[in-house]
Amino acid sequence: MRIELQKRANTSVLFSVLSPLLALALTLIAGAIMFGLLGKSPLNSLYIYFVEPLLDVWSLHELAIKAAPLILIAVGLSICFRSNNWNIGAEGQFTIGAITGSILPVLNPEWHSPLILPLMLIMGMIGGALYAGIPALLKTRFNTNEILTSLMLVYIAQLFLDWLVRGPWRDPQGYNFPQTKSFQPEAVLPEILDSGRAHLGIVFALIAALALWFMMRFMLKGFQVSVLGQSERAGRFAGFSARKMVWFSMLLSGALAGLAGISEVSGSIGHVQPVISPGYGFTAIIVAFLGRLNPLGIIASGFVLALTYLGGEAAQLSLGISDKVSRVFQGLILFFVLSCDTLIHYRIRLILNPSAAQEGKS
Q1: Where do the H-state alpha helices sit in the chain?
Q2: Quick one: pLDDT at residue 1?
Q3: 240 pLDDT exceeds 60?
């Protein structure tokens, strides 16, 4: 007996649109079962996880803070994925962007100028783009797999960050804690409202999403992304360069990941420390697919995934459960999104006698 996936002749437009909502519904059902197995009330647990964090103004600010890096990274990844370039190393580009953007406030703490923050943001984007350029170079020059190279570079970036804050960048007056000096006020992203901590990072994220939506919808570059992503051969007939698209998509996604990194360090943390991300670069992959690789859809999915972080923190306090629950929810969402998409495009076929079926084909 064998199970096969057989491509459908026609796919349902309705189910294609409803697929993310169906995936979220299935995630809630699976989450309710999980809470029940943990000995918690499913309805009360889901309320604490998904509703309670939305009831206070300060929680909404925290939601915006966590959604900003997810949206920024995911919209860049969506361009990569739609062009058939699989950048899995956004977490490393996020980290390098935070490091390069922090050079000025860490090494020149006495410099007080309105220019420091714009320079930090630019340097963060350049750092993230250059780090993403490494797998782009390896792919275009040596035909290496960008999935493996970009992923392995994540661990190099994280270890480099850990070495910096425990060594050359450690604050000598920081009571031996592995972190840098706090940034001067001119190097901190300003808050957008007086009612909470939400900073300009969320503004950057929304602008980036709208700009890339416009590019994909109305510009020639967006058409090139779509054509080369669907068929590299067709793109070559149209005069588009797959090699240049590798560089464009990787550098763009790396720059946005780097911007997210320096925005997180400057706006939310205020200094550099060994851990600056709870896994935003990897979670952004889920955000991109949940948003159907559409920058506008990514805005909505970014807030949904940000809610899983807040809900996980609320569940730890109210229910006394592990912080790993938020990772379980994120994994469930990705699993159901991919499962729904697979079943939309393929039907499951059960073959009781594989050898007879093979003889029939021949």
Answers
A1: 13-37, 42-50, 57-82, 90-101, 103-107, 116-142, 146-166, 201-218, 220-230, 232-237, 242-264, 280-290, 295-319, 324-345, 354-361
A2: 66
A3: yes
Mean pLDDT, residues 320-337 taken together: 82
Distance CA 319, CA 313 (A): 10
**Residue 68 C-alpha from the chain's centroid:** 10
Q: Measured between alpha carbons, how far is 219 from 230 in angstroms, rounded to an integer?
A: 17
3-state DSSP call for residue 156? helix
Q: Residue 91's CB: how many other CB atoms inside 10 A?
A: 26
Do the Cβ atoms of 77 and 284 come closer than 8 Å?
yes
Residue 196 DSSP code: S
Name the helix (H) or strand (E) containing 348: strand 346-351
CB neighbour list of residue 52: distance below 8 Å, 6 or more residues apart? 311, 314, 318
For the residues 333-345, what does the mean pLDDT come to? 85
Q: What is the mean pLDDT of residues 243-250?
A: 96
Do 34 and 335 form a contact (C-beta atoms < 8 A)?
Answer: no
Q: What is the pLDDT of residues 180-221, one digit of tens each?
A: 999 999 999 999 988 889 999 999 999 999 999 999 999 999
Please, what's the b/e burial string for 275-291 (b: 16 or more CB within 10 A of its CB; e: otherwise)? Answer: ebbeebbbbbbbbbbbb
User: How far is Cα 335 from Cα 338, in angstroms, rounded to an integer?
Assistant: 5
Q: Is the pLDDT of residue 22 over 60?
A: yes
Q: Sort residue 86 into left (φ over 0), alpha (ψ -120 to 50) or beta.
A: beta
